[in-house]
Amino acid sequence: MVTPLATSPTSPAIPSARREGGWRSWLDSPFQVDIGIDLGTANTLVYLRGHGIVMDEPSVVAVTRGSHTVLNDGAAVGLEAKKMLGKTSYSVDVIRPLREGVIANFPITEAMLRYFISRVKARRMFSQTRVVIAIPFGITHAEMKAVYNSTMRAGADKVHLIEETLAAGLGSGLRIDDPTANLVVDIGGGTTGISVISVADIAFGATVRCAGDHMTDAVSDFIRERYKLQIGQQTAEQLKIELGSALPQNEHAAMQIRGQGENGRPATIEVSADDVREALRAPLHKILRGIDWVLENTPPELSADLVDRGILVTGGGALLPRIDDLISDHTGLNVTVADDPLTCVARGAGAYLDTINWQRSS
């Protein structure tokens, strides 16, 4: 599904990075904690002003089944919770509270954010906490409000929203305030954001509800259908990381995996790089269709810029080998993978902290 550019007079304003007087900054204060958050479907990254990326954890929470009580005195969040996926008893639920870039479970999302924010604030518990949090482009007013309210209830004193692709461009080092257009493709866990950025704003864009998690699911489905073997999400993810590529490379690479066979008993098979690449073909095609849609609907004066500027790819999906070659072959444009693409959105949210007049936005 592609969500085109949509605006509503009732939607909460997502501020542009443009403002009077140029870029604004302020001195660090012991009474302020300024945080940028990439609240992702797969992972949550936290940027602390003055320190950079201080947290990168899976967006996963373990709770007592039938309640919202987080295990281990509220600490079964992130990597600790992800280790329990598929291995819990009847009394425990391991929950991923975001789905396709938006909040699917409000209480658990709040608990997760509260844990992350409290860890960052550990030594400054009485400080005012100001948060810039990244959201997918084109989500609804209700979805924006849900992110805002959940972040406030999790312990933030002030909250600002920024679109993920705008944050990704800023975090990658793009001159987003330049009038020349740039196309950013941010392949996250639950969604792929595709935006044409010009003069520090999104001129045109879309969100494709297909990204890294869908690739992992596609690998799991392929193994089940081709080899009649049930595998867990973590095994499928390992296959994607170890053997996956957008175009052929290391064709003789293979990996042995274990799972549950048709008879319900444990079984071992060998999976090839060709298998994984075939599994990834369908989700990658959906992302390419989204890029096509944006390119075909971008105003001509902006399209002309893209011939020179090309496409910047960010997010975890940018780590898939040869993803740049696939997109370049498909579009005919130059494609660049950002440095450290996983952290671009969080770093961009952190950089955006310096552009906000918090007194006017409060």
From TrEMBL:
Subcellular location: Cytoplasm
Annotated keywords: ATP-binding, Cell shape, Cytoplasm, Nucleotide-binding
Pfam families (UniProt xref): MreB_Mbl
GO CC terms of this entry: cytoplasm
Molecular function terms from GO: ATP binding
Region ranges (Disordered): 1-20
Residue stretches of biased makeup (Polar residues): 1-13
Any one of the GO BP annotations: cell morphogenesis
Residues that, per the record, bind ATP: 41-43, 189-191, 237-240, 316-319
InterPro entries named in the record: ATPase_NBD, Heat_shock_70_CS, MreB, MreB_MamK-like
Subunit structure of this chain's protein: Forms polymers.
NCBIfam families to which the protein is assigned, alphabetical: mreB, PRK13927.1
Free-text function comment from the UniProt entry: Forms membrane-associated dynamic filaments that are essential for cell shape determination. Acts by regulating cell wall synthesis and cell elongation, and thus cell shape. A feedback loop between cell geometry and MreB localization may maintain elongated cell shape by targeting cell wall growth to regions of negative cell wall curvature.
Family membership noted in the UniProt record: Belongs to the heat shock protein 70 family.
Annotated protein name in UniProt: Cell shape-determining protein MreB
Organism encoding this protein: Oceanococcus atlanticus
